[in-house]
Amino acid sequence: MTDKLVIVLYFVVMLGAGYAGMRRSRDAEDFTVAGRRLGPFMYTSAMSTVVLGGASTVGGVSLGYQYGVSGMALVLALACGITAIGLLMSKKLLRAGIYTVPDLIGRRFGISARHLASVIVVFYSLMVGVSQIVAIGTVLNVVFGLSPTVAALAGWAVITVYSVAGGMWSITLTDVIQFVIKTVGIFVILLPLSLHRAGGFGHMQARLPHSFFSPVGIGVGTILAYFLLFFFGFMIDQGNWQRLFTARSEKVAFYGSIASGVYCALYGLAGALIGTGARVILPTLANPDNAYAELARKVLPVGIFGLVIAAALAATMSCASGLLIGASTVLTNDVYRPLRGERAVSVRANRIALGAVCVAALLVSFASGSVVGTVTVAADLLAAALFVPAMGALFWSRASRTAAVASMVAGAAGCVVFMVVDGLYANEPVMYGGLASLVVFLAVGALMPAGSRTDLAPAPVQPASVASE
After folding, report:
1. Where in this chain does the entry annotate a coiled-coil region (predicted)?
2. Are 157 and 319 in contact (CB under 8 A)?
3. Which residues, 6+ apart, have CB-to-CB distance to 274 below 8 Å?
4. DSSP per-residue string spanning 10-50
5. Choosing a second label site near 258 at 20 to 30 A (CA), which of 94, 152, 166, 245?
6. Residue 247, SS3 per DSSP
7. pLDDT tens per residue, range 41-74
8. What is residue 450's predicted lDDT score, i.e. its pLDDT?
């Protein structure tokens, strides 16, 4: 009962943070990017939490259970992507007043490219958000004994209420709380206790194969696939970009993204080590994905177990809320605004869009059997179709509108073709789709006459900072 009370209290705190964020959200810029006013700690916390979702926490421990320390490869790829955003992109994006990935592509390559990019980004953000809602339902099902549908509905309701109430301010405040819970739950509690119960490194090395302590034990091919999919994909993930634009200065965005990348890499290592310890403590688990919850139940006392489960919920909820507001911001900024004009984008319009996205996510989550495959397709399409034109918009002066649209189509088509040929979960789709996108982008860009090349348009006056109507 104590564990359940801890989790219920966590939900109450999240709703309270949503109310506090609502009081701060006075215009659309407050709602979508927290008024661009976050300092170092809040920015780094928010940027870190969007990385460390269910896949990085529960999934990272599962990979550690199966492969040992090399199981951190997935989270390491994400951490490198976050660091690259700060190092390579933060100054250019902030100076341009960019809000979204389609915003960048649209300003450089026109409305057709913007709409095509919007479809891909919304699909990706929505589907990955759905996977987080399903993960929340799974955790609540284990702890409270609820049916999977009711459990997913409960977690979804909390996310929806605090997100719609205050937008990015609410999400940022919950991110800070969730960041603290995750840090304490993983680094202070579960990591040292799991290593202690496993008998320390010496005993773990004696009990497990040598590959569990190799940096490439998971396989070089798998590490390469993670890098291609998650490093490049994360550099153009709308949830990450939206957190980037909350920084109050270029300096905060630059150094905060690097600090976040370092933190996330350490988090990935901690998760892999926890999973390695779980392999010694619980060697016969039928499902490696249960390693996090089962290990916590095994080694933690009542109350502390609830806190560690809350850490898993925190990771998943922060990732889900960031992705869902990312999808809704693209809808208002890149679809609704060009149709209705600047003044139409109010806090009310953003709340309606976010509420609609949350409802859509819930409905799709009920078809959970197809979610994993859909997320894989979405992530492959994002990396294969949008990475090259987005980088070209920022860094290649010879890029043209025709090259950008052709590149997106070629990347998406190549990705889908190799999914059919090699299978949904193969490494080839994102590799060959991305290669097709790059070749077409460079070839068409080089062939187009100089007059067809475009420059990055300046930010519109008072971007998305219209008061609530």
Report:
1. none
2. no
3. 61, 64, 186, 190, 191, 194, 292, 295
4. HHHHHHHHHHHHHHH--BHHHHHHGGG-B-HHHHHHHHHHH
5. 166
6. strand
7. 999 999 998 777 767 888 899 999 999 999 999 9
8. 57
- Residue 26: what are its φ and ψ, rounded to 5°? -100, -20
Helices (H), 366-400: 371-395
| 440 backbone φψ class: left, alpha, beta (φ>0; ψ -120 to 50) | alpha
Picking from 48, 72, 65, the residue whose alpha carbon sits closest to that of residue 298 is 65
Q: Measured between alpha carbons, how far is 252 from 91 in angstroms, rounded to an integer?
A: 10
Angle, helices 111-144/371-395, rounded to nearest 10 degrees: 140
The amino acid at residue 340 is R
Three-state DSSP at 453 gives: strand
pTM of whole model > 0.70?
yes
302 CB-contact burial (10 Å; exposed 0-12 / middle 13-18 / buried 19+): exposed
pLDDT tens per residue across span 418-453: 999 988 777 788 889 999 999 999 999 888 775 555
Q: What is the CA angle 190-193-198, rounded to 5?
A: 115
Spans of all domains in the chain: 2-370
Using DSSP's 3-state secondary structure scheme, residue 400 falls into strand
For the chain, the helix, strand and coil percentages under 3-state DSSP, each to the nearest 5: 85, 0, 15
Q: Distance (Å, rounded) from C-alpha 56 to C-alpha 62?
A: 9
Tell me how far apart the alpha carbons of residues 45 and 54 are, in angstroms, rounded to a whole number: 17
Instruction: Give me Rg for the CA atoms of the chain.
Output: 22
Q: Is the pLDDT of residue 299 over 80?
A: yes
279 vs 285: CA distance, rounded Å: 8
Report the alpha-carbon distance of residue 50 to residue 26 in Å, rounded: 24
Asked if 156 and 8 count as a contact pair (C-beta separation under 8 A), the reply is no
